[in-house]
Amino acid sequence: MALHTPFLIVSPSSEDMQASLQQHMQAELELPVSSPEHKASCQFELTIAAPPHFELRGWQGAADAPEELPDDVKDHSLCLLASMDGQFVCTSVEQRSMASNGERVAQARVSLPVSSLDAAASCPEVVVLELWAAGSLVCSYSAVLLSSCYSGALAELQGVGREALFVRDLVHWAHFLAVSRSAQQQQLLHLQQQGEAAATDTADPLAAEEPTEQQLGLMAGVGMDLLEHCLVEGMVAVAGVWWGSCPISLAGGQR
Q: Angle at which helices 236-243 and 164-194 pack, to 10 degrees?
C-alpha cells in the first residue's frame, strides 16, 4: 500500500477551495452540513498491490473487523482500517482502476471527529491507516491531518514532494508528538479521576504509558534535524506548526 500523499487536508471551506487543494495534494476534507454529529471526512487516494481476486472493504463497526469475517469472505478480503488516538473510525474505500498485475488505485473516505478541525490544537492530528489481507495485518502508515489554519505550512510542504526522507521523518515526528500528547492527556484524566492519592500512593496499570528516556532522546534528535532543515529551507510555517508549541523538549525530555 502506498499513500499518494501523507498530508491530508481538513477544511470546511468552499467547494472551489477544496477542489484546488485536492488538485495539489490529491486529498481533501470536508464538513458535511447535513450530519447531526458534525463530523469531518477525509478523502484521499492510495495504491494497493494485491492479487486481482481480492476485494476491497472498509470498516463501519465491530462486524467489519478483518480477523472476524467469515472464512469465505476473509480469504479474499483487503480491509482498510483507520484510527485516531487508538480508536477506530468509519472508513469506506472504492476501487478506481486496476492493472493486469493486480495493482489498483483506490479512493478512501475516513470519518473524523470535529476536533480534527480545531484551530486551537497544539499540533496537527495523525490518523493511522492499516491494510489487512485475508485476516492478517499487512502494513500500516501514519498520515497527518492539516486543517485550513495550517494553509501556510501546507503551501510550503507542497514544494518538498521529492524529499522523501524529510517527509518520512516529519510524519514520524508528527506521529510521535500525537502519541505523546495523547499519553499526557490520558495521564491527566487519570489523575483527575483518581485524585492526588492515585499519583502518590498507587500505580494504575491501565494508565497511559509515557515515552522512555531513550525514545525521547532519539526523537529529540530527529526533531532537531527536522527543525534545522525547515529553517535552512525557509519553511517557517512548518517550523511553527510542529515546534512552536511542541510538548517535547529538543533537549531530550518532556516540557
A: 30
How buried is 170 (Cβ within 10 angstroms: 0-12 exposed, 13-18 middle, 19+ buried)? buried
Could you tell me the pTM of the whole model? 0.73
- Between CA 121 and CA 247 the distance in angstroms is 12
pLDDT range class, residue 115, cuts 50, 70, 90: low
Amino acid identity, position 128: V
Question: Which helix H or strand E contains 96, and what residues bound it?
Answer: strand 91-98
Residues 6+ positions from 105 with CB-CB distance below 8 Å: 45, 46, 47, 95, 96, 97, 98
Residue written as grid cell 500523499: 5
**Quick count: other Cβ atoms within 10 Å of Cβ 152?**
14
Task: Report the C-alpha gap between 110 and 189 in whole angstroms.
Answer: 27
3-state class (DSSP) for residue 104: strand
The confidence band for 105, taking pLDDT boundaries of 50, 70 and 90, is: very high
